[in-house]
Write a structure and sequence with these properties.
Distance between the termini: 23 Å
Strand content: 25-35%
Pfam families: Asp_DH_C, NAD_binding_3
Function: Specifically catalyzes the NAD or NADP-dependent dehydrogenation of L-aspartate to iminoaspartate.
CATH superfamily of the largest domain: Dihydrodipicolinate Reductase, domain 2
GO biological process, one term: NAD+ biosynthetic process
Number of domains: 2
InterPro entries: Asp/hSer_DH_NAD-bd (IPR005106), Asp_DH (IPR002811), Asp_DH_prok (IPR020626), L-Asp_DH (IPR011182), NAD(P)-bd_dom_sf (IPR036291)
Structural class: alpha/beta
CATH class of the largest domain: Alpha Beta
Largest sheet: 5 strands, mixed
Helix content: 25-40%
CATH architecture of the largest domain: 2-Layer Sandwich
Order of helices and strands: HEHEEHHEHEHEEHHEEEEEH
Catalytic activity: L-aspartate + NAD(+) + H2O = oxaloacetate + NH4(+) + NADH + H(+); L-aspartate + NADP(+) + H2O = oxaloacetate + NH4(+) + NADPH + H(+)
């Protein structure tokens, strides 16, 4: 994800990526791979240049460990690993860090459409929100789904998880960031119902949001192509990050 976003932004003359943070043991290899395009460091404290904002696309551990450090330093942060916010108390902790530093935390919609409408509908009150995630079996490899299903032997669509958005995001952190985003944007992590499906006929990562409330009804479906080197991640998720970054320097923001 990080590599895809970096390449997409490399030729944008309105932006300059100055520093990249990776685990300390990966600093040298990452520096060699970037070939001087940015300085690679192992912790926030190693960055001594002024920053306009930071972008997280490194996973849940980065959200809990690195993001608060930027916020308290007064650096705005765009977060991609929204599923991390399913942890009890983390949203409140990040908000407190942002207020302490006078910074702002932005959550990207990721691979799903309709988050803007869902968040708008919440202002008048929502009655129910449901999210259904459907991917090919390969998209669920390396997750808890393997403990419930023989992914290589599936002959028909199979539901392997039903529960809340908080539970889904915690159990499937690399696959269910969308579930957390839907929960946070709408009726809450514990009231949003989630169904996850392994479907051998699925050619794309399919997401569906169904919501009802005083605003009316919402039913939005997205079928996203995956990143070429990562079947767990929709290309739209990476593009959502690129859009959020470019909005930071755009004259007109959509």
């Amino acid at each position: 994800m990080g590599g895809h976003v970096h390449r997409a932004l490399a030729d944008d003359d309105r932006l300059r990526i100055t520093d990249v943070i990776v685990p300390p043991e990966l600093v040298d290899a990452t520096q060699a791979r970037l070939q001087g395009q940015a300085r690679v460091v192992g912790k926030v404290g190693d960055i001594d240049t002024p920053l306009d904002f930071a972008l997280e696309c490194a996973g849940h551990q980065a959200v809990t460990g690195t993001v608060p450090q930027f916020l308290t330093r007064g650096v705005d942060v765009i977060v991609a690993s929204v599923g991390a916010l399913s942890q009890d108390g983390l949203v409140e902790a990040l908000e407190a860090a942002a207020l302490q530093g006078g910074a702002q935390l932005t959550l990207v919609p990721g691979a799903v459409a309709g988050i803007d409408a869902l968040a708008a509908a919440r202002q008048q009150g929502l009655e129910s929100v449901e999210y259904i995630g459907r991917k090919a079996p390969a998209g669920w490899r390396g997750t808890a789904a393997e403990q419930k299903l023989d992914l290589d032997a599936l002959a028909e669509p199979t539901v392997f998880f039903e529960g809340t958005a908080r539970e889904a995001a915690a159990l499937y952190p690399k696959n269910a960031n969308v579930a957390a985003m839907v929960g946070l944007a709408g009726i809450g992590l514990d009231r949003t119902r989630v169904t996850l499906v392994a479907d051998p006929s699925a050619q794309r990562n399919n997401h569906r949001i169904i919501a009802r409330g005083e605003f009316g009804d919402l039913d939005i479906q997205t079928a996203g192509v995956t990143l070429p080197d990562n079947p767990k991640t929709s290309m739209l998720a990476a593009l959502s990050i690129v859009r959020a970054v470019r909005n930071r320097v755009a004259g007109v923001v959509i």
